[in-house]
Design brief:
Shape: globular
Strand order of the largest sheet: 1-2-4-3
Number of domains: 2
Helix content: 25-40%
CATH topology of the largest domain: NADH Oxidase
Order of helices and strands: HEEHEEHHEHHEEHHHEHEHHEH
CATH architecture of the largest domain: 3-Layer(aba) Sandwich
Largest sheet: 4 strands, antiparallel
Distance between the termini: 22 Å
CATH class of the largest domain: Alpha Beta
Number of helices: 13
């Protein structure tokens, strides 16, 4: 619901923009309206993942996801919204701290035909459920490939049972190994929520994660227990939850510079929505990318050095919805806590009103 001091139409736009997926559901992006036509898009550094996401690439790539979602929200309202990323951003230079970094501008540049975007954005979910034991249609696979190619990336899917099994097993290995790293585990603890899933919130909840609460508590407090023979069977149970998986896929392409990251994020959101239209769900295996040994395995297995994303995908029952924050707006009352550098205020060419 819009507050009285929120310039239209940003309150309505944010209602859909907040549905954008982000790593660990940290929801770091905010809209700061300047007037009814222009708003800043900022990332809150306290909601980034500086340990696990070294170089800030995955969180900042999700700026592209957020931008794509905000533009979809505009079409839902019959508004043409254009999100432009500032050119000067250097992802590795953003240091862990608190407060915002301004990443770009959102502008309402005109009107357009109204398109129902709420249905597709609400239906898009991550599925950690077992999948139906059937192949995705060739027509859908072709569309996924074309979506990636339109942004200069490659979507390569694999249905060989041996490859699928090996990737699923190695993903479990990556999860267990990453959980043994003290700094990464401490960062993850900030975002794990072991309780009933609320309608409003952030982080990773037991329900959408499809994980028993006891196992989640043990993994956070005593991660080395999962190396013991009896408890290690939890890994096998995790694999059983991925029963029916017939496909894994990799995404390949540019994923280094700031423009590359923004474009990769936009492509990923378009791919995710394309999957949703075909009734297909996915589960990213990002731990395999951040885990050094599994990353090496991926490069060798698929003979590629430009893999930046890996996933399993297929058909499943509708998974539980992950909660989102009530608002992703920063109003004037919120902003004094964040001292925005003068250079960031001036470089856009706009003045707040």
């Amino acid at each position: 619901m819009m507050r009285a001091n929120e310039p239209e139409p940003w309150g309505q736009l944010s209602e859909l923009a907040r549905l954008a997926p982000t790593p660990h559901n940290t929801q770091p992006f905010r809209i700061r309206p300047w007037n009814g036509r222009v708003a800043q898009i900022v990332v809150l550094r306290e909601r980034m993942l500086p340990v696990e996401d070294a170089g800030n690439r995955f969180v900042l790539a999700s700026f592209g996801i957020f931008a794509e979602t905000l533009e979809c929200a505009g079409r839902h309202l019959g508004l043409e919204v254009r999100v432009t990323a500032y050119r000067e951003i250097l992802p590795p230079v953003i240091e862990p701290s608190s407060g915002p970094v301004v990443l770009g501008l959102a502008e309402v540049v005109g009107r357009c035909a109204v398109e129902d975007q709420r249905s597709i954005l609400d239906a898009r979910r991550t599925s950690r459920l077992p999948y139906e034991d059937r192949l995705v249609t060739p027509e859908a696979l072709t569309e996924f490939e074309h979506t990636a190619a339109s942004h200069g990336h490659r979507f390569e899917s694999f249905a060989d049972p041996a490859i699928v099994r090996d990737v699923l097993r190695r993903n479990v290995t990556a999860l267990l190994e990453n959980n043994l790293k003290t700094a990464e585990l401490e960062e993850l603890r900030r975002w794990i929520r072991i309780a009933d899933t609320p309608p409003v919130g952030d982080g990773l909840w037991a329900g959408p994660m499809n994980q028993p609460r006891l196992e989640m508590r043990l993994a956070l407090r005593f991660p080395r227990l999962f190396l013991l023979p009896g408890i290690a069977r939890a890994g096998a149970r995790y694999l059983r939850k991925q029963a029916g998986t017939r496909h894994v896929a990799i995404l390949r392409g540019p994923f280094g510079s700031w423009p590359d990251l923004v474009d990769a994020g936009r492509m990923l959101m378009r791919l995710w929505l394309s999957m949703t239209r075909h009734g297909v769900y996915m589960l990213p295996f990002c731990s395999m990318i951040t885990n050094a040994s599994c990353n090496r395995y991926l490069r060798e297995q698929f003979s590629a050095d430009d893999i930046w994303f890996i996933l399993r995908f297929g058909y499943s029952a509708m998974p539980p919805k992950a909660p989102r924050l009530a608002s992703v707006l920063l109003g004037d009352d919120d902003w004094p806590a964040y001292a925005l550098p003068k250079r960031a205020r001036l470089r856009s060419g706009y003045s707040p009103t």
